[in-house]
Amino acid sequence: MNSIALSKRKDFAVYRATWVFVAALCLLILQALQATAQMLPNTFADLADEISPSVVNITTTTVIAGRADQMPRGIVPKGSPFEEFFREFEDRRRGGNGGASRSSALGSGFVISADGFIVTNNHVIEGADEIEVEFFSGERLAAKVIGTDKNTDIAVLKVTSDAPLPFVSFGDSDTARVGDWVVAMGNPLGQGFSVSAGIVSARNRALSGIYDDYIQTDAAINRGNSGGPLFNLDGEVVGVNTAILSPNGGSIGIGFSMASNVVSRVVDQLTEYGEIRRGWLGVRIQDVDEDIAESIDGLDRAAGAVVTGVPEGPSKDAGILQGDVIVIFDGHEVEDVRDLVQTVGNTEVGKAVDVVVVRDGAQVTLSVTLGLRDDEKLARADEPAVNEDAPKDYEDLGITLSNLTDEIREGLDLAVGLEGVVVVDVVETSEAFEKGLKSGDVIVEAGQEKVTSLAEFEEQVSATIESGRKTMLLLVRRGGDPRFLALTVQQ
Q1: 3-class DSSP state for residue 38?
Q2: Is 129 exposed, middle or buried (0-12, 13-18, 19+ CB in 10 A)?
Q3: Helices (H), 136-201
Q4: Which sign, positive or negative, has the C-alpha torsion 293, 298, 299, 305?
Q5: pLDDT confidence bin for 91, thresholds 50/70/90
Q6: Angstrom distance (rounded) from CA 328 to CA 168
Q7: Is the pTM of this model over 0.70?
Q8: Regarding beta strands 194-205 and 421-426, do their DSSP bridges make them parallel or antiparallel, or are they unpaired?
Q9: Number of Cβ atoms within 10 Å of the Cβ of 303
Q10: Which residues contact 458 (CB under 8 A, 6 or more apart)?
Q11: What is the pLDDT of residues 322-360, one digit of tens each?
Q12: Rounded Cα distance, 118 and 366, in Å
């Protein structure tokens, strides 16, 4: 009896322990579900009520000119007594503009001040002859363009209203985290005011521009949403809806909004100056990859921007040289070319900044007074090079080189003072080919030393190998534009 009683007591203890464990587990799950429910908003209705009055629909009208003497073909023969009658009929049908027609487009925007400043996309209003803004209340006002920026696809409009307008403020897009709730508003597919919700899917996306900084979201964005705001749950604008990625033209949950910290700077300049004033450093640059970093003394990682050319401008005046690697700009550590371009562009024109470069294995600090960037003047044509035969093969490097003779110089239309060795062939299976070296390229430096002949080039190859380096840095000119690349000289 005693052993049976003891066995029953053990079974009861195990039974009770099991139920205590199950109850505790259920409690934990319940608490987790409650916590999740508290994190999820029950509704976006209050937020929508708060911000809707500041969101606008934008309609643009563009007059497309036609030929005034163009007659409808096949109606009457030329010279017919009815020709003038049909001309008048066709003009009335086309709006009396002698063949001109009108094209309309729809977009979105949002008010940022009580006195009527409105933000939208540049592509929404570009080329428009008339712009009309419709408010949530149904009121319609004509708008004029204050300024545009094609690089960020942002435009600022202005309307005149008898009463102060409801408006919204920009938030700090840098605080937006992947997974945060966001709400998009606008005029999708011309359906009128509409709200969609989603999360921040990714940050710091780049599409095609050098100043791109997009927030990716799965909140539904369709045609007509362009220029509309992307809100956080505090009702602050953290992005301007600009583009979608879609195989069919409709939303598939991959939308992009230009980050508010970029937009707010653009808007400030457009409202103050009517144009964008970006800082200009005045250098041609490229990214530092692992091979280039290994080839340059003083670089411990693949970061920064290597200077491939220094035209007349702020950097040349400050003493920056071709081959310098910019690692710090105005106290900011430079990660790559995109990072440097954006940082410089966001810096005040005329400001004197310290630029730290790596040169000859040491860091050198230079003071540069930034100029004003003019993208049109900075645009350069990319001229193709001409292929020529040459006698010297470098099988280990996968290239054929030639001294720069007068005949080759004339054939490549090179500058009279340009010196170096010319690439006349590149093996397609070689590293040089993979890194973009082409026939017609002129190598002007090897191992960070100037070369004017094949003999000097070979000396630098030998010097690189003797120094124990695996790669050699080359400075190459193509169509007048310089570029660095690093080739492996020994395994």
Answers
A1: helix
A2: exposed
A3: none
A4: negative
A5: low
A6: 36
A7: no
A8: unpaired
A9: 16
A10: none
A11: 999 999 999 999 999 989 998 999 899 999 999 999 999
A12: 41
**DSSP-derived 3-state class of residue 87:** helix
User: Encoding tokens for residue 139?
Assistant: 């009121």
Q: How far is CA 149 from CA 159, 160, 242, 309, in A?
A: 19, 22, 13, 27
The distance from CA 254 to its chain's CA centroid, rounded to whole angstroms, is 16
Where are the strands (E) in 206-236, listed by range? 214-217, 229-231
Is residue 395 within 8 A of residue 372, CB to CB? The reply is: no
- DSSP letter, residue 480: T
Torsion of CA 312, 317, 318, 320, to 10 degrees: 40
Please identify every residue annotated as catalytic.
Answer: 123, 153, 226
**Alpha helices (H) along 95-171:** 122-125
Alpha-carbon distances of 52 from 135, 139, 146, 255, 420, rounded to whole Å: 9, 14, 23, 21, 64
Q: What is the mean pLDDT of residues 435-448?
A: 90
- Three-class DSSP category at 344: helix
Q: How far apart, in whole angstroms, are the C-alpha atoms of residue 375 and residue 153? A: 15
**DSSP state, 70?**
P
The two three-digit tokens of residue 127, written as one number: 């080329």
Can you tell me the distance from the alpha carbon of 44 to that of 46, in angstroms, rounded to the nearest whole number? 6
Average pLDDT over residues 233-257: 87
Q: Tell me, what DSSP letter sits at residue 173?
A: G
